[in-house]
Amino acid sequence: MGTTMDIVGDGFSVHVLGRPGPSGEPCLALMHDYIEGWYSTPDLKVESHARQTGDGNFQTPSDRVLYESRTVTAHILAYGRNRDEVVGWATRLNRTAGGLVTVTVHDGGASTWARGYCQLNFDAAHYEDAMPGTLTVVCDDPRRYGTAVRQGYASTSPEGLGGLVWSADAPRGLAFPLGFGDVARSHSVCTVLNGGTATAYPVITFGGGNPADLRIADPSGRQLRYQGPNEAPVVFDCLSRTAACLGVDRTRYVSARGWPEVPPGGSLTLSVMNSGGGYIEVACRDTYI
User: pTM of this prediction?
Assistant: First the structure.
């Protein structure tokens, strides 16, 4: 089958074969065994500064190595047994215009996707059984993502390590019967993986006590803290660095902004704590650039 491609938009989907089928059935097919710009890195977006009294430039920090948007070009053939079928498939591909589409490329046992907007150009040449064209997709987010979602779950633990419980109503201050408070549970930790070659930014969903005082920390000590209402699950998008609840922006309640990142080819372990209990769900995908 070779390389194939799926294009999904608002209310439609199109499958593009690697080549026309042997039975001569009408279809959309790639004219080449490759898609331009899919595996290449986009153009660099790096500012470097020359040394005035020495050779070369000042060293660019790794976090300043950035990329432009990704441009993907696929040469596609609308194929049919007659002109009506050819025009029908070309019209179907025209539905990619006027909105965002998700392009998924299946190649060599791996499937990755990117999202962008399209420009479609068909050749002026007239053929009875085929119409060649070029589909260009501009992806503002230059990353490619794996189709499989990697997930981790953790129940939030109460604050503190436990201890004797004191009460103002007790005769000597010590509550009876004796209790040692809430103790942090072992399942307040979860780990997610990133099998890609670029940093992955997870999406974290939190549901729990309202109002929340949620803290999510990684082994380096970086901490994400949310202190605000959560009448419904709060979603933290670590790529856009925003928090939302029922579609309403809640980023202003994020008081500590150590947004978690999953290193390329590595893993990230998060510990979670909330005074009101609850849970988090962490989701990320293998990420490439």
Answer: 0.84
Place of tokens 């953790």: 154
**Tokens describing residue 99:** 């909105």
For the chain, give every residue range classified as CATH 2.40.30.200: 4-49+61-142
Residue 205 CB neighbour total at 10 angstroms: 14
| Per-residue pLDDT tens over the stretch 242-281 | 999 999 999 999 999 999 999 999 999 999 887 677 889 9
Greatest Cα-to-Cα distance within the chain, rounded to the nearest angstrom: 97
Which tokens is 154 given?
A: 């953790």
CATH T-level fold of 4-49+61-142: Elongation Factor Tu (Ef-tu); domain 3 (2.40.30)
CA–CA separation, 83 vs 81, rounded Å? 7
CA distance 173 to 170: 5
Q: How many angstroms separate the CA atoms of 261 and 289, rounded? A: 15
